Amino acid sequence: MADEPQIRVLPIQVANKIAAGEVVERPASVAKELIENAIDAGATQVDVAVAAGGRKLVSVSDNGRGMSRDDALLSIERHATSKIHDVDDIESIHTLGFRGEALAAIGSVSRFRLTTCRQGDVVGSEIVLAGGGIQDVRDIGCPPGTAIEIRDLFFNVPARRKFLRTQQTELFHIRDVFTIQALAHPEIGMSLTIDGREMHRLPAAENLDDRLRELFSPDLLKQLKMVGHMADGIEVTGKVSVPTVHRADRNEQYLFVNGRATSPALLSYAIREGYRGLLPRGRHPSVFLFLEMPPGWVDVNVHPTKREIRFRRPGDARDVVIAAIQKALSVTPAVTSEADVLPDVVGTIDHLPPVATELKIDDLPPTRAFKYPRPPAVGVSDSPMGDVFGPAPSGTSAPGSGNAEDAPASAAATPPTPEEFGTAPWAWCRVLGQVGGFYVVLETENGMVMMDPRASHERVLYDRFMRGVVDGAVQAQALLIPETVELPSRDAARVRRNLPLFCEMGFGLSEFGGSSFVVDALPSCFDGTSIDRLVTDMAQSLEEVGSRGGQHGKQEAMAQAACRSAVGTRQRLSLTEIESLVVDLAACEMPYTSPRGRPTLIFTSLNELHRKFGRK
Ligand code: ADP
Ligand code: MG
User: Fold this and answer.
1) DSSP notation for 457-502
2) Which of 9, 156, 240, 450 has the most CB atoms in a 10 Å sphere around its CB?
3) Where are the alpha helices (DSSP H) in 265-330?
4) Coil, strand or helix: which one is 85?
5) Distance CA 563, CA 560 (A)
6) Which residues partner with 192 through β-bridges?
7) Which ligand is nearest to the Cα of residue 105, counting in written order?
8) pLDDT tens per residue across span 38-58
9) How far is the CA of 176 from the centre of ligand 1 (A)?
10) Does 413 have pLDDT greater than 60?
């Protein structure tokens, strides 16, 4: 009795059931594993059907290579796989599966039916399991490929069944799985049928765009920018949303590494960084990003669901994604795609009649066309009408359009080369006037643009200021009469703690006892702003940002606040100021939103106008 061993090897069905706990969390996990198997089998058509949120049925059929009778019997054994042969293969995995666990695990917690036939075989095989036990194996006539039906998931694991959520929730996860695989493989035709209703029938597509159009609203595609970037042996392609489009959740962020869907925190961080300063707080972009790198650089063998991955060189992966997003966002907006080429216009008005606005519009030559070079040069005209802007007379430039050395004189001397065009939001534009005494209306080469001058001004100021901060070369200006600022005590404490940051940013700020400070110098771009408000707003931004993002994050928050108050206290802009603003904004790297994520520009293409007026 004492000698009877206490340790026993578990019967295989028990072991499988335990393993199922890791692989099969919910019906969507079944869908995921089966679709992945179909893709690994080289299918060009994959059809998915579910019933009752996947509890009753998850079925996946494919036209892939199918299995022989012997292979089919092996496929349901644990650790049986055709995808790797020895331990070294784990270092370079090219398939979605490789652990050989899924079918065994799924089979052990469901009623399982597999039919499969190889191309050219006269007869296929059918295998039926219940709770992992073989019920039936026989010949069957079926088309080449494999179909697997999983019914009554967890029928023999009541504890698990209880944890399933509502049908709606389970369906949400199933659709997510389907969408992910559909995005990863536009070349594969796919369908999804839910409770007998076909929800998606996606034809095999040429490219990601076609797939996106089928899967999402056609409008989404218009709001996406193309991503293409390669560095350090890592390639990033795909699409990301323009900064004016964002959502409250991250549900439209799809990331793939070597074709495998994944969502490592590292890449979420990279996405945030890529959009830093472009989105309002708490809002998220839509992204569809595909990273490709040598298989040895990613470890997918972290968790049975293979959703987690580890990068051998995480820093590189992160940096490449940030760079890819920034690159995608800093070129022309989506509406100026090839689809929006200028149609033939019947009858043009050569000379605009003078427009009566508060702007001195009569001073405008009839056509004010000009082209922009890339930053840092601030562009002026090489229009056929001659230089329209010329160097801005000192003192009339918009605040933030800055100092004498920024004046566009030198740019005027060297007209930009053609390659430099197209990176600004427009190749040429002219100011038509203002609406409501506020919004600026511009005509551009393929339509019109409404510009929010405040948001734009914030962007221009912010870019100029932050460039100075980052380079450690903020232009500061001593005040003739130093000013005292009295702050609420909490703000004062915060400013005191961050005095060195203020100094780095060009503020001559020192304690003056109690919660008072003396300001004797300011960054010159904030000349004319209420100092009291500037310092107060910056102090408050420190509270909002907390310690998030470290010094850099703090400085960005402070700069945003400073730019906001600088613009907020401005009076109405003069025409000259509007003109400089337009030029300066176009030269910004991210001209489409304010630093706080509000849109600066709203584009209406000529095509859109034609459409609205019923012209083809
Ligand atoms: P893994 O995918 O990790 O290899 P699975 O348990 O998912 O493990 O599948 C086991 C094996 O069964 C696979 O390696 C493959 O050879 C075979 N198999 C599974 N599904 C299919 C399918 N749809 N078409 C062809 N072969 C399949
Ligand atoms: Mg598999």
Assistant:
1) HHHHHHHHHHHHHHHT---EEEEEEEEEEE--HHHHHHHHHTHHHH
2) 240
3) 265-274, 314-329
4) coil
5) 5
6) 48, 200
7) 1
8) 999 999 999 999 999 999 999
9) 22
10) no
